[in-house]
Amino acid sequence: MTEDEIIEFTTGLPGVVTTTADEASGAPESAWGDSFFFYDPDGDTEPDKRWPFATIVVSDYPGFDESSQLSRPGVFRLNINVGRTAFEELFGYSPAAHAVRPNEFDNAALDQLLPHPAYAAQAWVSILNPDRLSPRAKGLLTQAHERAAKRHRPRR
C-alpha cells in the first residue's frame, strides 16, 4: 500500500479532510510531505482546531522522533489513533503502560503493527510501509474514522 493509496482510501471515507504539509501551508519544513486526516464533514472547523485521527509521516523529526528511521529511501509511517481499548486489545497493555516498554519493539521494522514511537501513550499505533498489513491498516483507519465521527461536535 503506497502513501497515495492510503491518502485515496482515507480521503474517500465520509467527512474526511486531508491536508499535506508544504511551504504554502505554513507548516515547518520538517513536516513538509506529511499528511493529516481529519473528520470535518462540513469543512468548517478552523485548521488549528482540528485533531487528526491518522497521519502519514515521511521523514524523521531530529531530536524527537527518529527511531523509525524514515530517512531510508521510500520509507513512510502510517499512524492511527486507535483509542485506549483497541490499543490494549492489540498489545495486551494500556497505552499508559507503554512508557516502561520502550525497547520491546523495533520501531524501524517494515510492515508491522507497532505502538507509535512517540505517541503510544495517547493510543496511537504505526505501520511502516504497510504491505501484507494493508487490509488491517484499512480496518484500523475505518475504525479511527468512526471514532472521530462519534466525537465530532458540529459548531453552532
Please trace the helix and strand order, writing H or E for each element.
HEEEEHEEH
Strands of the biggest beta sheet: in what spatial order? 1-2-3-4-6-5
Helical content band: 10-25%
- Stretches where pLDDT is under 50 for at least 5 consecutive residues are none
Could you tell me the mean pLDDT? 93
The CATH class assignment is Alpha Beta
CATH fold-level topology: Aspartate Aminotransferase, domain 1
The number of helical segments is: 3
Give a short account of the largest sheet.
Answer: 6 strands, antiparallel
CATH architecture: Alpha-Beta Complex
Instruction: Kindly name the structural category.
Output: alpha+beta
Number of domains: 1
Strand content: 15-25%
What does the secondary structure layout of this molecule look like, with pairings?
Blueprint: H1 3-11, E1 16-20, E2 35-39, E3 54-57, E4 77-81, H2 84-91, E5 114-115, E6 124-128, H3 134-151
Antiparallel strand pairs: 1-2, 2-3, 3-4, 4-6, 5-6
What would you say about this model in short?
By secondary structure, this protein is α+β, with helices and mostly antiparallel strands.
Plain-language structure description:
It is a single chain. The protein has one domain: Aspartate Aminotransferase, domain 1 (Alpha-Beta Complex). The protein is globular and about 40 Å long. A six-stranded antiparallel beta sheet has the order 1-2-3-4-6-5, with helices on one face. It contains three helices and six strands; from the N terminus they run H-E-E-E-E-H-E-E-H. The mean pLDDT is 93. With 156 residues, the protein is α+β, with helices and mostly antiparallel strands. The longest helix is centred in the C-terminal third of the chain and has 18 residues.
